[in-house]
Design brief:
The protein has 147 residues and is mainly alpha-helical. The protein contains four helices and no strands. The chain has helices at residues 3-7, 9-22, 35-89, 94-146. The longest helix has 55 residues, at 35-89.
């Protein structure tokens, strides 16, 4: 060996590393009978990834649903408060509304009774008018027969 290569052992190691790096990489030969297991494993990993993605979407959808429910509850509460405020502002509390509703029903019943009584009176006056006509007809007949 020459004295130059002995002086620089790191240079020799460097050349050896370059030769290994430049050598073609040989692919591994597939094992016989292992293809099905490998396909199954890939499908399993894909399904696991899809399951994780779906679980994430489900969690996000649940959060959005909870947020929407909270918004609905707050809007409903606000609507009810506005309704109550409108009633109070109109000067008609809930007890007064109930009282007015009851008095309206009583007034409607009274009106119905009044209509019935009026119809009875009209029928009596018609009967009386008929009787009066008959009496006048009878009187006229008696006058003519007596005269």
């Amino acid at each position: 060996m020459n004295s130059n290569s002995m002086r620089h052992p790191t240079l020799a190691i460097g050349w050896f590393g370059l030769l290994l790096a430049a050598a073609p990489a040989w692919p591994q030969a597939p094992r016989s009978g292992g293809g099905e297991a490998q396909k199954f494993m890939q499908q399993y990993q894909q399904l696991a990834a899809e399951k994780t993605a779906l679980q994430t979407q489900l969690a996000q959808a649940k959060q959005e649903l909870d947020a929407a429910k909270a918004d609905l509850a707050s809007v409903t509460k606000e609507r009810d408060a506005l309704k109550a405020h409108a009633r109070e502002r109109a000067g008609v509390p809930a007890a007064a509304v109930a009282q007015l509703t009851a008095s309206k029903a009583a007034a409607e019943r009274s009106l119905e009774q009044y209509k019935q009584r009026t119809n009875e009176l009209i029928n009596r006056f018609r009967d009386m008018a008929e009787n009066l006509k008959e009496v006048e007809a009878d009187r006229n007949t008696l006058r003519t027969t007596l005269a």
